[in-house]
Design goal:
alpha/beta, 38% helix, two-stranded antiparallel sheet, TIM Barrel, eight-stranded parallel beta sheet, oxidoreductase, 13% strand, 282 residues, NAD(P)_OxRdtase_dom_sf, single chain, AKR5G
């Protein structure tokens, strides 16, 4: 366990051997233009290597601009994007990938995800497109987002390549224990979106108590909990100070008792859509 606790550059090794940073910056709802450019440049300047965007965020151009202006070699970064619901299907997904790549101004992606499973199982066709992109070397790893166990089982039953990552809503109020265990058994890396439950968890008394004990912020304690649970995490922020603070979680370790107390906060409560009913854009 200790080997993942040293720094912002630490990585988990995906089942195909690709190394993915444990920690990154998410840019959901970060405005295109100077807002996203400044956030991404701040993150990279302060040692972040991983940036997570998506077609639907409509800020891929700004992310690409920031990467260019950062002066950091492309191969030192880990860039994720996602195919949106309206682009499910083999040809549509291939086209969506080209569009994302062009907007980002990159030659390849490190990780490309199916954003939501949807209702009609077209994700299998979409997955075939991702497998092709992977085999063609256009993307270093492929995965899914918001997939429940039954979606994963259904996909794996017919897929040639198993997803390397499943990015889901994950935080102390939604600990997804069964999904997490399933992914670990299958060698699929779990990744957390909305790790702070859009800020709602920052006033949780137990978390505040634990934060005080370690002289850390509630956000830092939650993000540390993610890492100690072996979950990759990508908190979103546009403030430079917060971007620095969020990443300052490699100089302390939560005790097993405190990890357990935080596990005990689970109430299967979502801030986002349930993937079984989410039907936008299908």
């Amino acid at each position: 366990m200790d080997n993942m606790l040293k720094s912002l550059q630490d990585t988990t090794t995906l089942h195909n051997g690709v190394k993915m940073p444990w920690f990154g910056l998410g840019v959901f709802k970060v405005k295109e233009g100077s807002e996203v450019i400044d956030a991404v440049k701040s993150a990279i300047k302060h040692g972040y290597k991983s940036i997570d965007t998506a077609a639907i965020y409509q800020n891929e151009e700004g992310v690409g601009q920031a990467i260019k202006e950062s002066g950091v070699p492309r191969e030192d970064l880990f860039i994720t994007s996602k195919v949106w619901n309206s682009d499910h299907g083999y040809d549509a997904a291939l086209q969506a990938f080209e569009t994302s790549l062009n907007k980002l101004g990159l030659h390849y992606l490190d990780l490309y995800l199916i954003h939501w499973p949807g209702q009609n199982k077209t994700y299998k066709e979409t997955w075939r497109a991702l497998e092709k992109l992977y085999k063609d070397g256009r993307v270093r790893a492929i995965g899914v987002s918001n997939f429940h166990i039954h979606h994963l089982q259904d996909l794996i039953s017919e897929a040639e390549i198993k997803p390397m990552v499943n990015q889901v809503e994950y935080h102390p109020h939604l600990a997804q224990k069964e999904l997490h265990a399933f992914c670990q058994r299958e060698g699929i890396q779990l990744e957390a979106w909305s790790p702070l439950k859009q800020g709602q968890l920052l006033s949780e008394p137990t978390i505040n108590e634990i934060a005080e004990k370690y002289q850390k912020s509630p956000a830092q304690v939650i993000l540390r909990w993610d890492l100690q649970n072996k979950v990759v995490t990508i908190p979103k922020s546009i403030k430079e100070q917060r971007i620095i603070e969020n990443a300052n979680i490699f100089n302390f370790e939560l005790s097993p008792e405190d990890m357990e107390r935080m596990d005990g906060l689970n109430k299967d409560e979502r801030v986002g859509s349930n993937p079984d009913v989410m039907n936008v854009g299908f």
